[in-house]
Specification:
about 725 residues; alpha/beta; Luciferase, domain 3; GMP Synthetase, Chain A, domain 3; Non-ribosomal Peptide Synthetase Peptidyl Carrier Protein, Chain A; 7-stranded parallel sheet; 5-stranded antiparallel sheet; 28 strands; about 20% strand; globular
Length: about 725
C-alpha cells in the first residue's frame, strides 16, 4: 500500500475504512488484514479467527517483536498442498511444530510490531548477497516507497559487463532525482543498501495479475553510478597510478583521488588483487593499509610517510608484568587446591569456545551461569543462545534453569544493562570468563580496539567492583607466530621462544587482531599487578570436537579453508615437509580452561592452551591416506603452476584466494607457515598433568570424524 494512495483515500473520504489484507490462495485467500486508521501507518494487520501466524528465522525458530523473518500460517484455512506438485507441497506445507495440522511457509518477509500488527517487508525470493552482505530488496523497496511523492518502487540487482552487482531502483510518482532519493534513504538504510542507480518511470510495468513485472523493467546505464561524492581528479603522478590500478581491479572508471575502494565494489579478495597489481607497478602496500586508507589519496599519503614507525613496544617498561609472569615455570610446581567458581558471568557464550565453556561449567558445577548476549531484545538474546546450545548439544540444556541470559553489549557502560540488572551481576558473580572477541585479521584498528580492548577494560572494572576473578581467553597469536605476520624469529640474531613467562619479546604486532589481543592482555596484566585476581588463557588452534562437530560459522575458519583447498588440489608443496599441524579439540580446550580456573592462583597466571600432540606433515598425509584422502607432495614449481590455474575457474578460485595471502613475496612466493618463533608450553602441560588432564592423541579416528563432518555438511568433497 503506497503511503500517497492512503493519504488520497482519506483526503477524498475521511470516513472511509481502508483494509490492507495479505491473502495467499494456499490459505483460503484472507488470513490477516487490519484496518489502516492513520494516513502514514501501514501494516497488514492481525490474524483472523481460527488462523495462527508465526514469524520464524531460517532455522524455524520463532522471532521476537521487531525481528524480520518468514511469515508462516497455520489454522483452518491452510490447504492440503499443490495439485500434482508433491515436491513443492513438501517444501511449503510442513507439519506445524508449534501446534496441530499443517503450516504454510509463505516466502513473505515480515515482523511483529509492538501493537500486535504485522509489518510487511517483501519476498524472501528477493534476498540477494552482494560483496558478502545479505540484502533484502524488499526492505529497500519499502524505504523508497515511504518517501513523500513516491507511488511505487521496485529494486533489482543487475550485473555490468565486469560482473559487478549493482542495486537498481525504479520508482513512479513525483520525479525527485537520484541524489535526493539516496540522501533520504541514507537516514534509514546502511550505506551498503543504498541503490547504485535510481531511475524514475512514468508507469510501472505490471503483469496481468496486477503485480510489478520485474522482467519488463527498462535497461539502464550501468556505468554511471549514483554517488553522493563529487569526483576529485588525482593531483600527482602517484595518485594517478593508484587510481588507474584501482580502476583495473574494480573494472570501473573513473576512480577519483578521494573515492573509497570498498564503496566502489571492493572486497577482501579484490584488496588482495590490488596489493598484487600495485606491487607489479612498484608500490609495496600491505593488505591492512588498504583497509586503513581506502582511497587513492590516503594510500599515497600513507606510502609517502617516510620512516613509518612500525608498531613497537620496545620503549615501554614491562618490568612489573615480567615479575608477575615469573612464577609460570614448571620448577617447584605446587598445584593450588580446588575452589568453587561460584556463579559465573560468561561473555561470548554464542562463540565456539564460549558455548563449550558454558557446557563444561553446567556439567561440572552447580552455580548459575549468567550469559551476556547481544540481541534486539531480551527474548532475542535468549533465542540466540538457545539456538547455539541446540546446535552443539541438542536438547541437553533446553530450558536449563541455571542459565540466566542478559541482553547486553560489552562495549557500553554497565554493559548496556539497566542499573538493577548490572547490580545483580555485581552481587552474584564470583568468576568472569571472557570468551568474547572479534577474530577477523584485517580491518580498521579502531574497530579491533573497541571490540577487543575496550570491552576487556569494561570487564576489569566490573571485576574490581564485584570483587570477582577474571579468566581472560587470549590467543597465541600475541607471540607473533601466526599465518598473517612475517618474522624471521630473531632479535639481534637471537632465536626467539615464547613461553608462559613471556609477554613482549620484540615480536611483530602489525596485524590489527594480534595487536588488539596483545593490548587486551596488557590491560589485564597491568590490573593484575595492581591487585586484580586474573588468569590469561592463550588459546591455540581450536578444532572439531572428538565426535566431529565443528563451529557453526565454519566457513570463516582459516585453518579449515586451507585443509579444504589442499584436499581439493590433492597436492601440497614438498618444502612444507617440516611443518606440523596442531589440532586442539574444542571440548578438551574448554575442559583445560575450566580445570585451571578451578585451581585458581594469582602466582600461576598465564597458560598456553594448545595441544602438545601435534601431527607432522608426513604423518598427517599418512593418516589421510588411511581414511581414503589422497594428498601427494610435489615441487614448488608444479604447485605454483597448479595454483595459478585455479584462478581461471569460478569453482576453484577460492583456492587461490585461500593461499594468496600466505605467499612470501621475498621467497619466490612460497607458502610461509613458519614465523621462526617457537611456542613453548612446558609449564602448562606439566600443570595440567598435575591436575589429571592429558591431551588426546590425534589419529585416524579423529581425522575420519573430522572429514566426515565436513563431507556431511557439503563443505569437503567426496573421498578421492
Amino acid at each position: 500500500m503506497p503511503p500517497d494512495l492512503l493519504r488520497v483515500l482519506y483526503s477524498k473520504s475521511p470516513k472511509a475504512q481502508v483494509f490492507n489484507p495479505l491473502g495467499p490462495s494456499e490459505c483460503s485467500v484472507w488470513v490477516v488484514g487490519g484496518e489502516l486508521k492513520k494516513e502514514n501507518d501501514i501494516h497488514i494487520g492481525k490474524p483472523i479467527a481460527n488462523t495462527q501466524v508465526y514469524i520464524t528465522d531460517q532455522y524455524g525458530n520463532l522471532l521476537p517483536v521487531g525481528a524480520v523473518g518468514e511469515l508462516c500460517i497455520a489454522g483452518d484455512g491452510v490447504g492440503a498442498g499443490y495439485l500434482n506438485r508433491p515436491g513443492l507441497t513438501a517444501e511449503k506445507f510442513v507439519d506445524n511444530p508449534f501446534g496441530t495440522g499443517k503450516l504454510y511457509k509463505t516466502g513473505d518477509l515480515a515482523y511483529w510490531r509492538e501493537d500486535g500488527n504485522i509489518g510487511y517487508v517483501g519476498r524472501n525470493d528477493f534476498q540477494v548477497k552482494i560483496r558478502g552482505l545479505r540484502i533484502e530488496l524488499g526492505e529497500i523497496e519499502n524505504a523508497v516507497s515511504s518517501i513523500d511523492g513516491v507511488m511505487q518502487a521496485v529494486v533489482v540487482v543487475r550485473k555490468n559487463k565486469e560482473d559487478r552487482q549493482l542495486l537498481c531502483a525504479f520508482y513512479t510518482g513525483e520525479e525527485l532525482g537520484a541524489k535526493e532519493i539516496r540522501a533520504r534513504l541514507a537516514k534509514s538504510l546502511p550505506k551498503y543498501m543504498l541503490p547504485h542507480i535510481v531511475t524514475h518511470l512514468e508507469k510501472m510495468p505490471m503483469t496481468p495479475s496486477g503485480k510489478i513485472n520485474r522482467k519488463a523493467l527498462p535497461e539502464v546505464d550501468l556505468y554511471h553510478i549514483s554517488s553522493d561524492k563529487r569526483y576529485v581528479a588525482p593531483s600527482t603522478e602517484e595518485e594517478k597510478a593508484v587510481c588507474r590500478i584501482m580502476e583495473t581491479v574494480l573494472r570501473t572508471s573513473p576512480i577519483g583521488a578521494e573515492d573509497d575502494f570498498f564503496e566502489n565494489g571492493g572486497d577482501s579478495l579484490k584488496a588482495i588483487h590490488l596489493v598484487s597489481e600495485a606491487q607489479r607497478e612498484g608500490f609495496v602496500i600491505p593488505l591492512q593499509a588498504i583497509f586503513d586508507n581506502p582511497s587513492p589519496r590516503l594510500l599515497c599519503q600513507w606510502m609517502n610517510e617516510n620512516d613509518r614507525p612500525s608498531v613497537s613496544y620496545a620503549e615501554e617498561d614491562f618490568s612489573a608484568i615480567e615479575r608477575l609472569l615469573s612464577g609460570n615455570t614448571a620448577e617447584k610446581l605446587s598445584v593450588p587446591p580446588q575452589t568453587d567458581l561460584g556463579d559465573v558471568l560468561i561473555t561470548g557464550a554464542t562463540g565456539f569456545l564460549g558455548v563449550h565453556i558454558l557446557a563444561e561449567y553446567l556439567n561440572t558445577h552447580t552455580g548459575t551461569a549468567y550469559c551476556l548476549v547481544r540481541g534486539k531484545s531480551a527474548e532475542d538474546s535468549r533465542r540466540r543462545l538457545s539456538e547455539y546450545l541446540s546446535f552443539y548439544f541438542g536438547s541437553r540444556f533446553t530450558d536449563c534453569a541455571r542459565i540466566r541470559v542478559f541482553c547486553g553489549d560489552l562495549g557500553k557502560a554497565r554493559f548496556g544493562l539497566p542499573e538493577e540488572a548490572y547490580g545483580e551481576l555485581t552481587q552474584r558473580v564470583k568468576t568472569v570468563i571472557n570468551c568474547a572477541a572479534s577474530v577477523k585479521h584485517y580491518g580498521s584498528y579502531q574497530y579491533f580496539y573497541d571490540a577487543n580492548v575496550l570491552t576487556v577494560r569494561q570487564l576489569i572494572a566490573f571485576c574490581q567492583t564485584a570483587d570477582a576473578r577474571l579468566i581472560h581467553t587470549s590467543t597465541l597469536s600475541v607471540s607473533g607466530n601466526s599465518f598473517v605476520d612475517r618474522f624471521d624469529g630473531t632479535v639481534s640474531g637471537r632465536e626467539l621462544t615464547f613461553a608462559e613467562t613471556d609477554f613482549y619479546i620484540g615480536q611483530p604486532l602489525g596485524n590489527v587482531y594480534a595487536r588488539s589481543k596483545f593490548e587486551a592482555e596488557k590491560a589485564v596484566l597491568e590490573a593484575a599487578a595492581n591487585g586484580l585476581h586474573a588468569n590469561i588463557m592463550r588459546m591455540g588452534n581450536l578444532t572439531n570436537r572428538k565426535d566431529g562437530q565443528f563451529q557453526k560459522n565454519y566457513e570463516s575458519n582459516a585453518f579449515v579453508k586451507r585443509l579444504r583447498a589442499i584436499v581439493e588440489l590433492g597436492v601440497i608443496p614438498d618444502y612444507l615437509s617440516d611443518i606440523y599441524l596442531e589440532f586442539t579439540p574444542i571440548e578438551e580446550a574448554a575442559a583445560a580452561v575450566m580445570r585451571i580456573a578451578e585451581h585458581f592462583s594469582d602466582e600461576k597466571n598465564v597458560f598456553h592452551i594448545n595441544s602438545t600432540k601435534v601431527v607432522y606433515l608426513d604423518r598427517f598425509l599418512e593418516l589421510l591416506s588411511q581414511i581414503g584422502v589422497r594428498v601427494g607432495k610435489i615441487s614448488h614449481e608444479k604447485f605454483a603452476e597448479i595454483l595459478r590455474q585455479t584462478v581461471r575457474s569460478e569453482e576453484t578460485k577460492y583456492i587461490f584466494e585461500t593461499f594468496v595471502n600466505d605467499m612470501d613475496s621475498d621467497n619466490d612466493n612460497k607458502l610461509a607457515y613458519e614465523s621462526g618463533i617457537h611456542i613453548e608450553n612446558a609449564f602448562t602441560e606439566t600443570y595440567l598433568r598435575a591436575l589429571g588432564f592429558e591431551w588426546s592423541e590425534i589419529g585416524t579416528e579423529y581425522l575420519r570424524r573430522y572429514f566426515d563432518y565436513f563431507r556431511k555438511i557439503g563443505y569437503f568433497g567426496e573421498e578421492k
